Amino acid sequence: MRNSTPPGRFLVVDDNKVNRLLLGRGLELEGHLVEFAENGRLALDKLAGQSYDIILLDIQMPELDGYQVLEKLAGDLRLRDIPVIITSAVEELDSVVKCIEMGAEDYLVKPVKPVLLRARINASLEKKRLRDQQRELISKFATSEVAQDLEASGFSLGGKYVEATAMFADIRGFTGIAEAQSPEDTIELLNTYYTLMFDAISGHAGVVNQIVGDGLMAIFGAPIAHAQHCEQAVRAALEMIELIGLFNIEQASLEKVQIRIGIGIASGQVIAGYTGTTRRATYTCVGDTVNLAARLEAHTKVIGQPILIDKATQQSLSQAIQTEAQGEYQLKGKSHLVEIFSVLPG
Amino acid sequence: MDSQPMIDPAAYSELKASMGDDFIGEIVAAYLEDTPRLLDELRQRLIEQDAAGFSRAAHSIKSSSAALGALTFSALAKELELLGKQGNLAGAAEKVKHLEYEYLRVAQSLQALSHA
User: Fold this and answer.
1) B54 falls within a domain
2) Phi, psi dihedrals of residue A345, rounded to the nearest 5°
3) Which of A1, B47, B53, B74 has CB 3.0 to 4.6 Å from B65, enough for a Cys bridge?
């Protein structure tokens, strides 16, 4: 059994020196690294500066007691997933229940028996490692905003209304381009294209939530609210056009194919949330606003402008961005005429 | 009462076995250093009629004493902890005096055991 799990970093919080020594010794004999704090306040000081795998927490302490520490931990995104094991006297079991309700993972009755200590900490360490792995996976397959949102509010299918800006972009005549060159060149082109687009979008607090073929959908203002989502989306679009221009100069010098993109942007209420099944889900936004952005993107081909936006977006923009009214159009799926504006390069 | 050993032999030898022969000396030393301080605090809290602080100091004495096998002494500390929790420090002075007296015997027994 011994050393079956790799060593962990422990913070032992107890106002009694003998208890600290006993717990610390028990952990060190298991090969773990141990640091100590004499009360809740000192524990939070330590937690602010260093990371620990598990906290062993006494309940009754001067300065800040165990409950207050749990409360602080629960309110801190960085700290709230560190497993806390409560160490308590046997007659304090009522308090232990309260601690577990407040987020503590487990408890040990003092005086602590070494066998029990070993079993509990190994179980908690294992859970902690699984959670860390899970988080790493999420950050790899989701945007950092979605990962943050998942961490903050947990995962649940279902949506809510939010004010946001939706953006669609794709490469003009991509099918023709793909047919004219090798598959390797096409994939390389797409990878470069996506790298540039992601940079421009995430640089303006946007989130790319779908990529299909040569098209992408991005959202600004969700899952994390942003007051200037219209402005940010349009600025991202301008940067996308600029980056494509630079990319084309490079492509021309290599005698490779050049590309043009079209971008449609619309703002308003969207339904945002995780859709799919509990096995496979994605963060997405749907609704009229999203449809309009897609229609505007398609319309860039019709009127030969790279960036088209709706009136709601246009009206929220600062003076620094120049737009030009393009008139009213009947767009597919819309019962009313839609006022369209183009964005002029800055 | 006097027939009861101050330190429960089974609890003490179990602790010694799990912590190692060297380390038990360190723990006893820490206990002998820390407990008089906690007893002082207990008396101080009583003077101030600070029931919560009184209870906390008694709780701490109870906890480390139980760990070292000073079970009867720990039970006395627990009585004081409860008085503090109930906010009733009347009559606590006698019990604190008794606790201090008992501590001397605990300390003697521990010193003897750790040098054995």
Assistant:
1) yes
2) -55, 140
3) B74
Predicted pLDDT at A116:
86
**What local confidence, expressed as pLDDT, does residue A154 receive?**
61
Q: Which residues contact A281 (CB under 8 A, 6 or more apart)?
A: A155, A157, A274, A275
What is the value of ipTM here, to two decimals? 0.90
How are beta strands A33-37 and A9-13 bridged, if at all?
Answer: parallel
Q: Are A88 and A120 in contact (CB under 8 A)?
A: no
Tokens of A87: 């160490």
Q: Tell me if A301 sits within 8 A of A281, measured CB to CB.
A: no
In this predicted structure, what is the pLDDT of residue A3? 46
Q: Which of residues 101-140 of A touch B (CB under 8 A)?
A: 110-111, 114
**Distance between CA atoms of A330 and A227, rounded to whole angstroms?**
30
Q: Is A146 inside any structural domain?
A: no
A85 inside domain: yes
**B30 vs A: CB within 8 A:** yes
How many structural domains does chain B have? 1
- pLDDT at residue B35 tops 60: yes
What is the predicted pLDDT for the residue at A332? 81
pLDDT at position A2 is: 45
* Contact indicator for A285, A222 with CB cutoff of 8 Å: yes
Q: Considering the domain boundaries, does residue B50 fall inside one?
A: yes
In a domain, A209, yes or no: yes
Segments of chain A scoring below 70 in pLDDT: 1-5, 137-147, 150-158, 275-281
Nearest to B18 among A19, A62, A114 (CB): A114
* B59 touching chain A per CB within 8 A: yes
pLDDT confidence of residue A179: 85
Confidence at residue A141, expressed as pLDDT on a 0 to 100 scale = 59
Nearest to A18 among B20, B53, B64 (CB): B64
| Cβ neighbours of A21 in B, within 8 Å | 26-27, 30
Domain end, chosen from A141, A176, A197, is at: A141
Asked whether residue A167 falls in the same domain as residue A126, the answer is no
Q: Is B54 on the interface with A (CB under 8 A)?
A: no
A218 and A253 in one domain? yes
Task: Provide, as residue numbers in chain B, all residues whose Cβ is less than 8 Å from the Cβ of A22.
Answer: 15, 19, 27, 67
